[in-house]
Amino acid sequence: MAAKPDNATAEALEDRDPNNLNQHVQIVWDDIIGEPEGARSPECSWRLSNTCFAYARNWCYTVLAVIIAPPCALILGCGFACLAFEQIWCTGPCLRCVKIYFASLRTMVQSCMAATVVPAAEALGHICRHIRVNYRKDAPEEKDLLVV
């Protein structure tokens, strides 16, 4: 006799979208079809349409899931395996090599910047720190009068 799964296992098997990846796919009758007050079909037509929709959706999804989902899963599995392989064995090591190769260039550029650009920027900052801008409210409306 097979053992019954505990509640946590049963919940994990029941919840097939635990990360809510497909919340945008609404395939429930009430989320797709709605009749306003002014345009209402007869009750029997409404119920029959709802039933037809539900059965067609479930039947079609089941057929597609049985026929097409396994090959799609195989292709997606291979694709993600190739992507993981490429990231782990190609891109990651190449990026690490680039970081190592350019570390000395980075140090050289930083040294040059510290020797040239930083003193020039500090001198310009020293000159500009004495500039005062005053806005006068008694100036004409069409232009601002700035006193430097």
Tell me, briefly, the overall form. Answer: flat
Q: Low-confidence spans: pLDDT under 50, at least 5 residues? A: none
Distance between the termini: 93 Å
DSSP summary, beta strand count: 2
Please state the structural category. Answer: mainly alpha
Spatial sequence of strands, sheet with the most strands = 1-2
Order of helices and strands: HHHHEE
Taking all Cα atoms into account, the compactness measure Rg is: 34 Å
DSSP helix fraction: 55-70%
Number of alpha- plus pi-helical segments: 4
Q: Overview of this structure, please?
A:
The protein has 148 residues and is mostly helical. 66% of the residues lie in helices and 3% in strands. The protein has four helices and two strands, in the order ααααββ. The protein has helices spanning 7-14, 29-32, 43-67, 69-128, and strands at residues 134-135, 146-147. A two-stranded antiparallel ribbon has the order 1-2. The relative contact order is 0.03. The model has no long low-confidence stretch (mean pLDDT 86).
